[in-house]
Amino acid sequence: MSQDNYVFSPPTPTALPIDAETSSFPVRRVYCVGRNYAAHAVEMGHDPDKEPPFFFQKNPDNINLSDSFSLPSHSQDVHHEIELVVAIGKGGRNIALEEAMSHVYGYAVGLDMTLRDLQSQAKKMGRPWEIGKAFEKSAPCTPIVKKDGVDVESGAIWLKVNGELKQEGDLNQLLWKVPEVIVHLSALFELAPGDIIMTGTPAGVGPVQKGDRLHGHIDGVGDLELSVV
């Protein structure tokens, strides 16, 4: 279909830069894994026993490549959640465990910023979480690092607020490891190049305030730094 056949110009696709390259990674969908670290499940009031993973989504244009995060005016309790981001480079449905990692293009450091008050209200009412998760610019993210030579089976993951350590864990603490997440997700959705998966956050989530400086880190993947405005 030619450009002239649209009633208005299509939006520019969201894309993540690729470290050390001039090309970029176009984002199709953003999947998020809930409660994928036992200690975080406990702090959110849930049983830490391993249960089947569950997923929710953010929107591609929620990705935030800026060095700042704007507090929404309609929430009084905005939380940080540091996460390993997995970028899918090859699609598929019902992907086998032994093939799962061949579908990965690379990794990034991301924040699943959450309006905790609105999310909690939605939970109590049995409603979807989008109002607390898929708000504007709610997914700050670093450029993608290609998977070659990057080990995500283990490695420190942490977040500091104003230099004070708030979240700390290790990728080996993921209840559902990266290949298992891909297997489960591909049984529910047909994955495609451009999908990204936010794999869950360790314990220590908490509120941010105007003027805070956030610094997130994942060994072998990189650092994410931004100011809350």
From TrEMBL:
Protein known as: Fumarylacetoacetate hydrolase family protein
Superkingdom of this protein's organism: Bacteria
InterPro entries to which the protein is assigned, alphabetical: Fumarylacetoacetase-like_C, Fumarylacetoacetase_C_sf
A molecular function GO annotation: hydrolase activity
Region forming the signal peptide: none
UniProt xrefs under PANTHER family: ACYLPYRUVASE, FLUTATHIONE S-TRANSFERASE
Domain called Fumarylacetoacetase-like C-terminal: residue spans: 30-228
Swiss-Prot/TrEMBL keywords: Hydrolase, Metal-binding
Gene3D superfamilies the UniProt entry points to: Fumarylacetoacetase-like, C-terminal domain
